[in-house]
């Protein structure tokens, strides 16, 4: 999965905010009397370039340029340096090679400039007020009300313009510009499949945006949105929605009725956070990824388990079963909270994925880092997991852990850090637990690592909590005496769910201990327990 906040949209380069047209579209001319100007669609930001390496015309459609010439680039190909660009020079439009050009990305006027008695012409938008039939070669056929982008207006001769046919666009990125809002008539762009509106300081969206029936990806991140249009659910083809770092005080419930939604990114910034997800989230039967980082969720609705695709004709492989599946789908996926759907078809749930350590793909089931969460809990809490916020300390839940680990052969990694910042790890070649009927008995393989083997003593032992004593001690409950919950025998070499003493402590064995690294009287600062399928 790709990182949504940094991806370059297809057809975007620099500040040119539209997909590259064909050369024929970019150079086609229509008569001015067929257009009405300034309809509000954001203008393309053309850029100026200086020729630093002369090159002759490479074909009939190419410009001949000398060193020092100034050209106006009106479209660039994907990632800028592939193929050719289209530019204006001395009143002529033609192809140029990007090699030998130095681009200046500040907005400038088109070259050539119109007479001084006329206003300076930058790029502008227009809409056909009547159908236009070509009267000569190289001209466009326009339907009534079709929106176009004017990118050159010759200073003399007939009122002809060079245009980009906006309604043919499938990918449009107008993010990180100075536009004051989304144009009200954006609904005319019916071919759009991807629309990027990142970092535009948007406070609201027009209802007309919801008319884009073919839109599959919508990026609204890094704006100031507090609500969505009431008809937002009309975006029936939308399958990926990015709304990071906005100002939602409540979960925008309109999202819960997007029939095709598969990926939802709603991680918040440092401002407003929401605490509740509505029960209607269960309507998202196709949801496979939901990222809610940096919120303040206090609970998850039971309907979140329904938020997966149950259509009979949907291949099981299309949903991720663990974090490794998510990473395999997109190797650029960052660490964070995602939805996974175990193969038992009992529904999905949120997990934290470590996509960085040792190649990534790890599904975390335990994390200690600051002592803010009480881990001295009962059987029911460890069965279901606690708390709902997976960005801090948590225990995923023994039922969920069993559902994950029973799918295939998994390996275990335990990462740990002391108060001084020293780190160590313990890895085990296999990992599994038994179901609740067998008290979640632990099964691990061969040890490797730097922390020492403090878990093999617990292999084959059932799980115990303060209210469910399954250990082998004849002198009482290990969980009660050392204030934890673990696969105790008689009693332990490790106690990672113990009391958070942070560093050395006088009590014996009741801290976040890993005996073979720091002993029984040192409580670790950070621990993470995580699983990943074996190679």
From TrEMBL:
Domain of life of the source? Eukaryota
The answer to whether keyword Repeat applies is: yes
Q: Which CDD domains match?
A: FReD
Key word Disulfide bond present: yes
Q: Which SMART domains match?
A: FBG (SM00186), LRR_TYP (SM00369)
Which Pfam families does the protein's record reference?
A: Fibrinogen_C (PF00147)
**Protein keywords:** Disulfide bond, Leucine-rich repeat, Repeat
Q: What is this protein called?
A: Fibrinogen C-terminal domain-containing protein
Gene3D superfamilies assigned: Gamma Fibrinogen, chain A, domain 1, Ribonuclease Inhibitor
Instruction: Specify the Fibrinogen C-terminal domain's residue ranges.
Output: 314-535
């Amino acid at each position: 999965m790709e990182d949504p906040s940094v991806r370059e949209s297809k057809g975007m380069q620099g500040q040119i905010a539209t997909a590259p047209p064909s050369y024929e579209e970019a150079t086609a001319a229509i008569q001015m009397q067929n257009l009405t100007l300034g309809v509000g669609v954001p203008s393309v930001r053309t850029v100026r370039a200086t020729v630093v390496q002369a090159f002759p015309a490479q074909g009939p459609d190419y410009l001949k340029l000398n060193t020092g010439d100034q050209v106006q680039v009106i479209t660039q190909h994907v990632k800028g340096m592939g193929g050719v660009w289209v530019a204006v020079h001395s009143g002529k439009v033609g192809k140029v090679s990007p090699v030998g050009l130095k681009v200046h990305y500040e907005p400038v006027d088109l070259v050539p400039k119109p007479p001084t008695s006329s206003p300076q012409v930058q790029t502008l938008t227009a809409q056909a007020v009547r159908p236009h039939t070509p009267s000569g070669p190289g001209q466009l056929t326009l339907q009534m009300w079709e929106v176009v982008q004017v990118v050159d207006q010759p200073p003399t001769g007939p009122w002809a313009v060079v245009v980009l046919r906006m309604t043919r666009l499938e990918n449009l990125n107008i993010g990180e510009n100075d536009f004051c809002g989304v144009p009200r008539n954006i609904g005319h762009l019916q071919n759009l499949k991807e629309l990027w509106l990142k970092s535009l300081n948007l406070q609201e969206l027009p209802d007309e945006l919801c008319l884009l029936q073919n839109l599959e990806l919508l990026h609204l991140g890094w704006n100031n949105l507090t609500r969505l249009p009431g008809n937002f659910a009309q975006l029936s083809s939308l399958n990926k929605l990015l709304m990071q770092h906005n100002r939602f005080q409540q979960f925008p419930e309109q999202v819960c009725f997007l029939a095709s939604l598969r990926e939802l990114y709603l991680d918040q910034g440092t401002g407003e956070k929401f605490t509740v997800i509505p029960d209607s989230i269960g309507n998202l039967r196709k949801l496979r990824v939901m990222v809610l980082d940096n919120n303040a969720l206090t609970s998850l609705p039971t309907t979140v388990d329904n938020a997966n695709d149950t259509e009979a004709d949907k291949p099981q492989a299309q949903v991720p079963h663990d974090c490794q599946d998510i990473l395999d789908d997109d190797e650029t996926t960052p660490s964070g909270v995602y939805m996974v759907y175990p193969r038992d078809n009992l529904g999905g749930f949120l997990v934290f994925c470590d996509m960085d350590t040792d190649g990534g793909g790890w599904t975390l089931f335990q994390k200690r880092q600051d002592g803010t969460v009480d881990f001295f809990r009962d059987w029911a809490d460890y069965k279901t997991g606690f708390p709902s916020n997976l960005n801090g300390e948590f225990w995923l839940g023994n039922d969920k852990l069993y559902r994950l680990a029973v799918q295939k052969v998994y390996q275990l990694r335990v990462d740990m850090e002391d108060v001084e910042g020293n780190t160590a790890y313990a890895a085990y070649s296999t990992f599994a637990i038994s179901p609740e009927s067998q008290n979640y008995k632990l099964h691990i393989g061969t040890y490797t690592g730097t922390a020492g083997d403090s878990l093999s003593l617990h292999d084959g032992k059932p799980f115990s909590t303060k209210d469910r004593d399954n250990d082998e001690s004849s002198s009482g409950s290990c969980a009660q005496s050392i204030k934890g919950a673990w696969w105790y025998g008689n009693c332990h070499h490790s106690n990672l769910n113990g009391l958070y003493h942070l560093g050395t402590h006088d009590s014996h064995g009741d801290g976040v201990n890993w005996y073979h690294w720091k002993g029984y009287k040192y409580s670790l600062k950070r621990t993470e327990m995580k699983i990943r399928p074996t190679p």
